[in-house]
Amino acid sequence: MKQLYVIIIFLFTLCFSVEGFSQERQNSMNTPQTETVNVYPNPVKNGVVTIASKSDHKKVVEVYNVLGKQVLKTSLLKNKLNVSKLPSGIYILKISIQNQEFTRKLVVE
């Protein structure tokens, strides 16, 4: 059972990584990639994660658990995202800034 769980997590992470790569790749082919996104600290221990980008535009952040269920969706005007109510685990962040989308893995301890 534990091995099956590990395999499911691996496949889920791989799917999001490939999907995120292809989305970023398509965006960079259609328009110049002027935006970069950094997520730190990772792993997050204090319940607050910083999502830094070059621009001050509004960020729409969606958080998905390893089963693909959306557990949080919010709009950020600043760079801080409160994840203190999320249980420990691995999450996928989908960050939308204007017409660009980015995916990042986040570990909550």
Instruction: Could you tell me the CATH topology label.
Output: Immunoglobulin-like
Q: Can you list the strand order of the major beta sheet?
A: 4-3-6-7
CATH C-level name: Mainly Beta
Fraction of residues in helix: 25-40%
Q: Using DSSP, what is the number of strands?
A: 7
Produce a short descriptive summary:
This protein is an alpha+beta fold and 109 residues long. Helices cover 27% and strands 40% of the residues.
Structure description:
Keywords: Signal. This is T9SS C-terminal target domain-containing protein. This protein has 109 residues and is α+β, with helices and mostly antiparallel strands. The protein has one domain: Sandwich (Immunoglobulin-like). Helices cover 27% and strands 40% of the residues. The chain is built from one helix and seven strands; from the N terminus they run αβββββββ. The strands form two sheets. It has a four-stranded antiparallel beta sheet, covered by helices on one side. The protein is globular. The model has no long low-confidence stretch (mean pLDDT 84).
What are the salient characteristics of this protein?
109 residues; alpha+beta; Immunoglobulin-like; 4-stranded antiparallel sheet; 3-stranded antiparallel sheet; 1 helix; Secre_tail; T9SS C-terminal target domain-containing protein; signal
Question: What layout of secondary structure does this protein have?
Answer:
Elements: H1 2-30, E1 37-40, E2 48-53, E3 59-64, E4 70-76, E5 80-82, E6 89-97, E7 100-108
Antiparallel strand pairs: 1-2, 2-5, 3-4, 3-6, 6-7
